[in-house]
Amino acid sequence: MYIRELRVDGYGPLRDMSVSLEAAVTVVYGPNEAGKSSLLRFIRAMLYGIPTRKDPVERGEPVFGGRHGGGLSLLARDGRELAIERYADGSGGSGRKSAGGILVRDGNGLELPWTQQEWERRALGGVSERLFRQLFAVSLDELHELLTLQGDEIGSFLYHAGLAGGASLAEVRRRLASEVDKLYRPKGTVPEMNRLLASIKETEAAIRQGRSQVAQYREAVESMEQANAGLSALEAELPELARKAAGYRGALDARELWLRRQVLLEEERELALRLPDPSAPPLSEEATAEWRELLRRRDAAAERLAKAEASMRELRKERASLRWDADLLDRALELERLEAMREATAARLEERDSLSSELRMLEDALDTLRQRLSPGMPLDGLRAFVRVTAEREPLRRLQLAWGDANRTMERMETEAGRIERQRIAVRAEMDAATAGRNPTALRSDEGASEYDLPFGPFRSRNRETLQHAWNALEDEMRRWDRALLSGAPTQEEILVSRKRGTRASGGGGRAGGSAGTGGLPRYAASAASGIVALALVFAVVQGSESSTVAAVEWVGAALFAAAAFFTALAGKRGAASPSYPAEQAGEYRRRAEQRLAELLVDPGKAAGVLFDSRTEAGIGESSERAWMQLRQSVQNWLALIERTDRESARQEEWRRRLSELDREFEALHAETRRAAARLDELQAEWMEWLRRYGLPLSLSPDDLQELLGMAEQGQASLLRRDRTEERLTALDEAQAAFREAAVALFEVCPPPASMEADPVLSVSWLYRRSLEERSVRDEAARLDRTIASAEPELADARAALLVAEAATTSTVARSGAADEEEYERRLRIDESRRVLSRERREVELRMEAGKDPAAVSELQRLLVEHDEAALAWMVRDAEEKWKAAEASRTELLDRRGRLAQELERLREEAESEDRLAKLAEAEGKLERLAERYAVLTLADRLLQDTKAVFEEERQPEVLRLASRYFSRMTEGAYARITVPGDTPAIRVETPDRRVTDSAFLSRGTQEQLYLAMRFALAGAASREVPLPLLLDDLFVHFDERRLRQTVSVLEEIASDRQVILFTCHRHVADAVRQGLPSARIMEWGAQREDSRSRVPGHGPSGTASPD
């Protein structure tokens, strides 16, 4: 993802500015308090939201006004264009509220309904704000935050990033530890095994204290039966009592509503009797609104007609009062032409005075220029010299050739010195090497004696041949050892295998191993550990959501499979005929003797020591010692061969370099002679040019730019002088033409006598008067048009009034009323009837809510037959009976509960056999939990060992990439970064395998290390969507050389993601400009001033800044 452009409406010290960031690498360079850090925080706020006022620095309230927020224009990796806007008030650019305060648009301007979570998932690759701050928007503070990570967190993230889905390995170990703690703690009480042990102790104590209580138990059983009988009778009686009490209570409560309903029915009948036709139904509810709308329309039509008639009268009166001078208007075009000439004439007078002064200044400038070029140069000579500007290109080529020739001579001298120094250095290296070891020592007896050869010289002196012979001998010896260590099973093991089938093969393998060689070969244990580790990682990858128990089951299955495999292997060896292992061992010995003969000139001595002490009983100590001596001898001899070849190659390289330097020196000498001849030719050509234009011969081609500048200056001055003289002549002619035209006009339209002496003032007075007369004429025409357009409006107003009156008359007639007053009275009565009807229906609904038809009928009967006092007495009587039955039921329930507890207690005390069963069950469960505890502990140990092997032998992708970046930044001073999973440290390794803790590095080197790890982690965290890197002054502690190397790393990173660097140090910006010519260097102070100049009314910059 690339940030193409950002727009700041208001954020911190920034306001109303737009910045383009099209380049892959952009350096924002500016002084302190220029707003660079504010710009970085603005980008973070646009991507992840403007913080609340609890964090005022990150929120960035505008210091100089403006709307708090802005927008970004982005280019996704798939080429799609996106634009986002975000403001502190939670609205987008349109001002309306947006989901999550963010407004997203595509390249066509269509709004996308994305929330903040969808924006992070779709556009930011799922990278959270915290991860973005740690890896992508980095200042010196965030860079050093890597120190706060400890031990397993660094190891698990960095190493498991290269495990292809095994990032949960540390989590599995934590879960295993959690499961172990849940099972048992030495002095705990909460874990399950601890609770089982306590329960077993309590059960054993209860068994010892048990006793019989039979009589008490029988009495409790009889009391329980009596309580159950009483409860059954009450359960059958209570529902009927409750129903009666509720019915009476409902009738008493509904009596007020019933009385209100009767009153409403009577009022409705009285209102209907006030109408001419009491049986007529009420008019619709819309009738009143329709009648008011008809009256409003009629009144509006009448008012409109009155306004139209008044407006027509005013227009005709105003038109009759207008008069104008037609003769003056006939000469309006001539007056306009003279008015235009008048303003130009006044300007010409001022221009003529200015041109006269300018002409005198030009004459003085030309005299000065002639004196600078050559004292006594005439004006014609100057005119000839200024034409030299047409020869600019040939002269430029002459100057460039002159400069190239001089630089070539200087370069030749420099190159000659360099070649001579290189020749001296090469000869010094050759002399120093000659004083050391002879490269042909390998072929002499003296060279061979440098190394101990306990078994004589080797057959081959070629490195590849010797290495191949040694590898073949080592393979055959390993096969022979395996043949010797394997043997046939005993008779007892064969019987056990026949009885137990496939399960006994594991036991037979163990017995055979103990009887033969003391266990499986060493490679079997390593293979078993590898199988267990792979099984555990596979379990984690296949089901990251499964429990730790599932992972442990995978480990158990892998252990069982490994045991079965190696037991079957031992069984196969034992199932063969007793003579087979001996024959196979003899074959492997013969092969080993052949390989030894290919390795040594005289293999007899070595064969006696190596082979004779190797039997089925084991490998002798002398054989092992001899084998180690032979291995060391081979390794020493291979090292000698390699060093000898390297020294020969160095000698050949020195000779080749001396030959190349000699040839280069001869070619340089010839080129120097040609450059000197070219310089003489250019000097002669230059002197000829000076003589042609009469210039001093002391000038050199270095003065050419100044001479051309004076020629251009003289040419421009001469041209301006000629044009000034021509302009003065034209001004005088225009002044005369204006006077003649004004005099001719005054004869027809004379001005006031006081203005006749000044033609300019007279023309201005006549022109203003013609404009006034024209405005009067135009106003009269406008009024005529207005009157003509107002007449149709007046007719429309009359027609609208007639239509409105007809509509009101028709409505009254349809209702059957005699006039409008009677119709309005009926509307008021019908409205009251509707209100009473609605209230009556509401009362009936409240009375009958939740009751079926039978209940409603019973309610009506009670209300009609009984008054309020009778209903109140019926309610009290029914409720007292119901409450008495409830009290009896509660007492029986309480008694039954106490009897049940007593019976349960007696049963528990009498059932000692149940306690024994519980005790046996608890002990069985404790045994299973103890077995699971052992499996979990073993699995954790295997994981720890496997992880240690992985960290030792395999470096993940993230660390490899970080190591490569760090090596380039430090110019190869460090070759590798390691992060052990069991220590809270980061270590670096030099090319000669020396390991140093990062705490002992200098601050600059530490920051280079953390920066390299940030780069690698950023690549791992955003592979699908490469987010831009925002780096805020991270290079302040880098020296000049390592800064250049870091710039080269930035160039590689910029090929895949955008990089924006903020700095206040000029040397950092210069280093990026030199190392990355394609990078854009943005002068931030100038950028802000340009942005302010484009915004009207922008105030001063102030002093507030977040930098």
UniProtKB/TrEMBL annotation:
Alphabetic keyword roster: Coiled coil, Membrane, Transmembrane, Transmembrane helix
InterPro entries to which the protein is assigned, alphabetical: P-loop_NTPase, YhaN_AAA
Transmembrane segment boundaries: 523-541, 548-570
Domain of life of the organism encoding this protein: Bacteria
Residue ranges of domain YhaN AAA in the record: 1-211
Species of the source: Cohnella candidum
Keyword Ion transport attached: no
The protein's name: YhaN AAA domain-containing protein
Chain coiled-coil ranges: 200-244, 298-325, 651-685, 889-939
Pfam (any one): AAA_27
Start and end residues of each stretch annotated as Disordered: 1085-1107
Taxonomic path: Bacteria, Bacillati, Bacillota, Bacilli, Bacillales
